[in-house]
Write a structure and sequence with these properties.
Elements (H helix, E strand, L loop, with lengths): L4 E5 L8 E6 L2 E2 L2 E2 L4 E6 L2 E7 L14 H10 L4 E10 L9 E3 L2 E5 L13 E3 L8 H14 L3 E2 L3 E5 L7 H9 L4 E3 L2 H10 L3 E11 L14 H18 L19 E3 L2
Amino acid sequence: MPAEIGLIGDATLSSLVENAAVFSQSTKYGPTSDDFTVGNLGEKMVAFIPRHGFKNRISPEKVPYRSNIAALKTMTVRRILGTCTVNSLNADYKPGEFVFFDQFVNMTSGRAETFFDEDGFAQVSTAEPYCPELRELAAKTADGMGMKYHKAGTVVVVNGPRMVSKAESSFFSSQGFHVIDMVQYPEVALARESGICYLGMGIVTGYDACMEGKADITPMAAEGVSALQAKAKEFVLNIVPKIPETQSCSCSKSLEGTVQTKS
């Protein structure tokens, strides 16, 4: 079933899809995280996949990232909105705010991270992994909604499901990384290999271990997290109808000039 836009995130996002059809899809890389929900969001046709499954049963290191992205590409998806919760490594990135990533740092291991691993390999650039066109549109949408957000931020991605130690957290913070999560990689890199625009949005729900004990650093209450998730849904509802039909960015040309070898 064709769709223009892919949504990846919390299972509750499925409620945004109207006239929905639910179906399963497998790829050569195995099954996806769960069934797809495909239907309308405004005048756009969207395909939603819950990253951790509808029952939230899949831990970060076991998410079938390749299957999810491959399936979306099969549906002719050209743009993906990927939402996730993050912890802050920087006092300027506060709980209750949103971050539109522009860079990632991969600290994961053992994850299938490329589509080019069967007959040689390809060296696809991820120098600018997140779509600049979508980030610009996201900032304008957030401004119109009165959201507190950061137009850019570096997310460091760890394997999970273990939370990092205070020493690890302090190291990441000292390197200038802004937030930490467990799912942005290899999702964004696989979208890049597929020529699909990717917008990564982090929902800051708390401070990481390195911030504990510092002045004015307090945890976010559970009701605050729920309000943020509701705001994220409202954001998706607002931005999707504004996404233009044509891509003016270079994301779709990510394989041009790429060095590819054959075994």
